[in-house]
Amino acid sequence: MKTIDLQTNMPAMPQLRGFGSKFLMFVVLIFALLLFLSSVVSIPTGHVGVLTLFGKVTGETLGEGIHVINPLKSAQRLSIQTQSVKESANVPSNEGLNLALDTSLLFHLDRSRAAEVYQKVGPNYAEKIVEPTLRNAIRAATSAHTANALYTNARELVQQQIQDELTTQLSPRGVIIENVLLRDVQLPAMLKSSIEAKQQAEQDALRMNFILQKEKQEAERKRIEAQGIADFQRIVAQGISTQLLEWKGIEATEKLAASGNSKVVVVGNTKNGLPLILGPQ
User: Fold this and answer.
1) CB atoms within 10 A of CB 202
2) pTM of the entire structure?
3) Which of 42, 102, 105, 279 is the most buried (most CB within 10 A)?
4) DSSP E strands, the chain
5) Is residue 105 part of a domain?
6) d(CA 89, CA 87)
7) Residues 122 and 187 reside in one and the same domain
């Protein structure tokens, strides 16, 4: 029967304990590194971080940049940049006609209320509250105007009404409205042709009124010009007398007599006769 000497394996025990301590230190370092990395959070430009602890919103928010946080917390990133929602809908006018309206909404998340929005609405707040509110505001604004007004001169007023309604509804919920744009308004073909014909008739009437007004002004100008000429002739006629004519005749005679081309000067034989100048034969 063989006997086993256990003392031959005893010297290997210190080597095993040394390896175990090194492995434990390595594990601790890896754990510390992972713990540190989980504590570092980077928030990209144009975003805000909402902190949660075990799924519960703490109410804390982080700005842009790198932050060191509690490793048990996590950061949910929400954009605070300008976002756009486009809505194409068939909406009724005041007369009950259906209009095709294309609208664009520009908005962004209120940084100071990001935690509240994430807690009460969620990260997809645009789909949950912005788009439905926009559709409702469009219908409310268009139903207060006629199709003719929406197609012509009421577009800016409708835009402002939609924006005011959205601001009233969404600002208390943490969404800031920047602008509302009406890109296009499409009317039924027959109604559109009728409105365009009416506008053309109005333009023709305005152009005719302009022409008539211009002709009236031209006639008034000519009347004033004729009156001025008549007044001038009347004043001149009142200032011409027989004595003046005789004096002017004498002056002309003297000048002609002094001229080298004058040869014969015959004076009229009547009392008021003017001089007669004859050239050389």
Assistant:
1) 10
2) 0.56
3) 105
4) 40-43, 47-53, 56-62, 65-68, 73-79, 83-92, 98-109, 175-186, 264-266, 276-278
5) yes
6) 6
7) yes
